[in-house]
């Protein structure tokens, strides 16, 4: 499933790729691939979209 999400993020379809970068969609992706702890770690370390970096 990770490969499918990676393909969407790298899509040549600009609208699709931009949508995949939406914070809500990123959270959905992490939940779907059962990586919620990694999501929280990303936020905690200041690497996530919530910090603007």
Written overview of the protein:
This protein is mostly helical. The protein has one domain. Helix content is 64%, strand content 0%. The protein contains four helices and no strands. The radius of gyration is 11 Å and the shape is globular. The mean pLDDT is 74.
Considering the chains and any ligands shown, give keywords for the structure:
single chain; 53 residues; mainly alpha; 64% helix; 0% strand; globular
Total of domains: 1
Tally of DSSP helical segments: 4
Q: Mean of the pLDDT scores?
A: 74
Order of helices and strands: HHHH
Instruction: Please tell me how large the radius of gyration is.
Output: 11 Å
- Terminal residue distance: 25 Å
**What are the segments in which pLDDT stays under 50 over at least 5 consecutive residues?**
none
Outline type: globular
Task: Give the DSSP E fraction (strand runs of 2 or more residues).
Answer: under 5%
| Beta strands, count | 0
Helix share of residues? 55-70%
Question: What is the structural class?
Answer: mainly alpha
Largest sheet: none
Brief summary:
The protein has helices at 2-9, 14-20, 23-32, 36-44. It is mainly α. The chain has one domain.
Explain the layout of strands and helices.
Blueprint: H1 2-9, H2 14-20, H3 23-32, H4 36-44
